[in-house]
Design a protein that fits this description.
The protein has 9 helices and 15 strands. The chain has 335 residues and is an alpha+beta fold. The protein has 3 domains: 61 residues, Arc Repressor Mutant, subunit A (Orthogonal Bundle); 204 residues, 2-Layer Sandwich (BirA Bifunctional Protein, domain 2); 43 residues, Roll (SH3 type barrels), CATH 2.30.30.100. Strand 7 and strand 8 form a beta hairpin. Helix 2 packs across helix 3 and helix 6 crosses helix 8. The longest helix has 22 residues. The termini are far apart.
Length: 335
């Protein structure tokens, strides 16, 4: 696989040969038909086939029968997504990178340049992946590193609801597709058995009364299973929990499908159902927690989230604190 592969692809203008082979997976397509349909020479067809092989595709060839995809590489290429996911908003444009500094950085840049809603930025690896508060996010091969550009009709103060929406989509996709009990920790972590399997980073450009764009970054530890010394006790991968390699493409399609469904629902019906689903998946609510923020630290009991996604914590003096940002951890000495 080319370590420097970069693709900017539009669903209306895909790699036609790859799409044809994927749509006819397991069946031969004659080189003559490809040449005639696409208006290119047989030599040009052969060159494109070799390019796909360089990307990692195993393609059988026969002088009599033509070409047939035998096996796809474990890559989240645009045509793989389009041939496997049934989406209407997300993924009309896809920026694919074998290696990038940060998908969120790239997404913000192209959003500023006018990239349409639903544009995806996907990387096989990041070397400067970021979490909240500029924390480094390790992003080796095998994970799912993705950013989504949205242009919602929302007030800026409502934007945190999109993080909640994304957390629900990811947790439910893991539960349904991988059959693992994934939970949510406020504000943006997906946990399995108390260890972090996914982080979500939402960044926004807005005016006083309107959102220009929102970039939602999602990092899922899928098949990557080695963590640094500082992370090995707090992070986990789906492969590690499941005991086998998972199908990243199927999981990605499940995440995008749920995210699109909830986004459409939010636009027509609001966020009430999404907030209720989030509460049912949250590990914080009803628990004693420690809160650390730029304004200081305190202890209390997480009792709810409000309509804007803020965590409501009942302090020891009985007052209710509204937490908009910070780190939340469960107290070890609950009694």
């Amino acid at each position: 696989m080319n370590e420097n592969l970069t693709l900017v692809s539009n669903k209306s203008q895909p790699n036609e040969l790859l799409m044809l082979l994927l749509e006819n997976r397991g069946r031969y397509i004659s080189g003559e038909k490809i040449s005639k349909d696409f208006g290119i020479s047989r030599t040009a067809v052969w060159k494109q086939i070799n390019t796909l092989r360089e990307w990692g595709y195993k393609i059988k060839s026969s002088s009599r029968l033509g070409y047939c995809i035998e096996e796809s590489p474990d890559l989240l290429l645009p045509e793989e997504i389009w041939s496997s996911c049934d989406l209407s908003i997300l993924g009309s444009e896809i920026y694919y990178y074998s290696l990038i500094d940060s998908t969120n950085n790239a997404a913000k840049k192209i959003a500023q340049e006018g990239a349409p809603e639903g544009t995806l930025v996907i990387a096989e690896r990041q070397n400067r992946g970021r979490g909240r508060i500029e924390r480094q996010w390790q992003s080796p091969l095998g994970g799912i590193w993705l950013s989504v550009i949205l242009r919602p009709y929302l007030l800026p103060q409502d934007a945190p609801k999109l993080t909640i929406m994304t957390a629900v989509a990811v947790a439910e996709a893991i539960r349904s597709e991988i059959e693992i009990e994934a939970d949510i920790k406020w504000p943006n972590d997906i946990l399995i058995h108390g260890k972090k399997v996914c982080g979500i980073l939402t960044e926004m450009s807005a005016e006083l009364d309107a959102v220009n764009y929102v970039v939602i970054g999602v990092g899922i530890n899928a098949n990557n299973d080695s963590f640094s010394e500082e992370l090995k006790d707090i992070a986990v991968s789906l492969k590690e929990v499941k005991g086998q390699k998972i199908n990243r493409l199927k999981l990605l399609c499940a995440v995008l499908s749920k995210l699109e469904d909830y986004y459409e629902k939010a636009e027509t019906e609001g966020f009430y159902e999404i907030l209720e689903r989030w509460k049912s998946l949250c590990v914080n609510l009803g628990k004693k927690v420690n809160i650390k923020s730029i304004n200081g630290s305190f202890e209390g009991t997480a009792v709810d989230i409000d309509e804007f996604g803020a965590l409501l914590v009942k302090k020891q003096d009985g007052d209710i604190a509204r937490v908009l940002s910070g780190d939340v951890s469960l107290r070890q000495n609950e009694d």
